[in-house]
Design goal:
Layout lengths: L2 H4 L2 E7 L3 H12 L4 E4 L15 E4 L6 H18 L7 E3 L2 E5 L10 H10 L5 E4 H8 L9 E5 L3 E4 H14 L3 E4 L6 E5 L2 E6 L2 E10 L5 H7 L2 E3 L1 E12 L9 E5 L10 E3 L10 E6 L18 H14 L8 E11 L8 E3 L10 E4 L8 H14 L12 H4 E3 H6 L1
Parallel strand pairs: 1-2, 1-12, 2-9, 5-15, 12-20
Antiparallel strand pairs: 3-8, 4-8, 5-7, 6-7, 10-11, 11-12, 13-21, 14-17, 14-18, 15-16, 16-17, 19-20
Helix pairs in contact: 2-6, 2-9, 3-9
The chain binds benzoic acid.
Benzoic acid binds next to loops.
Length: 405
């Protein structure tokens, strides 16, 4: 084979250069795999599920297997932190509170307490009065309860992605290419051939991590992923009392009419709009059926609803929403909006060589998911318990079947 042709050959091609794709390349190269990362836009872009800067690191989940997985992610965060002097997280704790009868997509406070106990994770329980006194909320219904878990943090997702990108750029085993949208993928002469405007690249294995754009790549391989898309709105609120510091928090409440009614927020951090804190809604008024329907304009009703909650229930903030933005996430159609991590369906040639991370909120799992996707790609299995995420058979559909249906 000519040298120039071999230069386009890799052991693994990762399609999708967001934090999870970059984390996968990091772990693949640690295993000695020659890896290419292809990103359709520019690296660190604001167009997908990694838009913005802050994300929640939290251990509370209603399922003990999720609590366990977050705990297992901690050594991987420590490893990533060792690659940069810039802090990846601001540890302020997680406050989960609200109506104890609400069971939502994020779960339920009492279920989270049980899951934390099952995994021996320390937390404290709180009454509504204690939540108001210790954490600066106000006018909460007296029936609200809560829990505080001290290991929660605000993740600096931008530094996380930048650290992984810099490490991969410096690695002799990794090539990273942005502005490289994939236009075709096919199995040819014993390997996958991946076509982009920058050239055609070849590998025996693929890892797909294109975030909300996963269906575009899946279609090229002959299947679709049943998902819904949330274009989530968020805004920043100016601190009027700089002595007040919020933890990362999430409030569980029953929907109001057609609207969801759950909100989450972040502490004040020096690295994201200093002087302001971020509060967002954990619902969308109109889910999208495809990422193409998305605009970069936040839904004004979602922002107004959130601002009203800030006005009614938070202290030390000016309730005028500033620096509004959106972030688009693909979610599975399971009530718990589980992650999907699986191999491609068997309609894809050599489907066992195509690993996919498809849906869910996964920023807190970035360093661990890179390792899990690497395990699946190189070994076909992983020691981490991902049985709840192997949802391909329910959500991956061969293209012909979709056309017929
Ligand atoms: C999460 O930690 O997974 C999460 C936090 C807020 C909204 C949605 C998801």
């Amino acid at each position: 084979m000519a040298e120039s042709a071999r230069a386009n050959h890799y052991d693994v091609i990762v399609i999708g250069g967001g934090p999870i794709g970059l984390s996968t390349a990091y772990h693949l190269s640690k295993r000695g795999a020659r890896t290419l990362v292809l990103e359709q836009f520019t690296f660190l872009n604001q167009l997908g599920s990694s838009a913005g800067v802050s994300r929640q690191f939290r251990i509370p989940y209603p399922q003990s297997y999720m609590v366990k997985l977050v705990k297992q992610s901690i050594p991987f965060w420590d490893e990533l932190q060792s690659l940069t002097p810039v802090p990846l997280m601001d540890k302020v704790g997680t406050l989960w509170f609200g109506d104890p009868t609400v069971h939502s997509t994020e779960g339920n406070v009492a279920d989270a307490e049980k899951a934390l106990e099952a995994e021996h994770v320390p937390y404290t329980t709180l009454t509504a009065a204690e939540i108001e006194r210790k954490y600066h909320f106000r006018n909460l219904p007296s029936t609200y309860t809560g829990l505080f878990q001290p290991d929660g943090a605000s993740i600096d997702l931008k530094v996380t992605a930048r650290t992984l990108l810099d490490w991969n750029r410096a690695s002799p085993l990794v090539a990273v290419k942005d502005e490289a949208p994939v236009s075709n993928v096919e199995w040819k002469d014993g390997a996958f051939e991946v076509t982009t405007p920058l050239g055609t690249f070849v590998a025996k294995k693929l890892v797909l991590t294109p975030g909300p754009f996963a269906n575009g790549v899946a279609r090229m391989l002959g299947f679709t992923i049943a998902a819904t898309y949330w274009n989530m709105a968020s805004a920043f609120y100016k601190r009027t009392d700089p002595s007040i510091q919020y933890p990362t928090w999430f409030v569980f409440q029953n929907a109001v009419g057609e609207n969801g009614n759950q909100f989450y927020g972040f502490p004040h951090v020096d690295w994201n709009y200093p002087g302001y804190v971020r509060v967002a809604s954990d619902f969308v008024i109109s889910p999208l059926s495809s990422p193409e329907q998305r605009t970069l304009v936040p839904n004004p009703e979602e922002i107004a609803f959130t601002a009203q909650w800030v006005r009614d229930h938070m202290t030390g903030l000016d309730p005028t929403p500033c620096f509004k933005s959106t972030c688009m996430v693909a979610l599975s159609k399971i009530p718990t909006k589980e992650l999907i991590v699986d191999f491609a369906p068997d309609c894809v040639p050599h489907h066992e060589d195509v690993v996919i991370y498809a849906t869910g909120w996964a920023a807190k799992f970035v360093p661990l998911l890179g390792r899990i996707l690497t395990d699946l790609s190189l070994d076909g299995t992983t020691p981490f318990d991902i049985c709840h995420f192997r949802e391909g058979p329910r959500f991956f559909r061969p293209l012909q079947q979709e056309k017929r249906g």
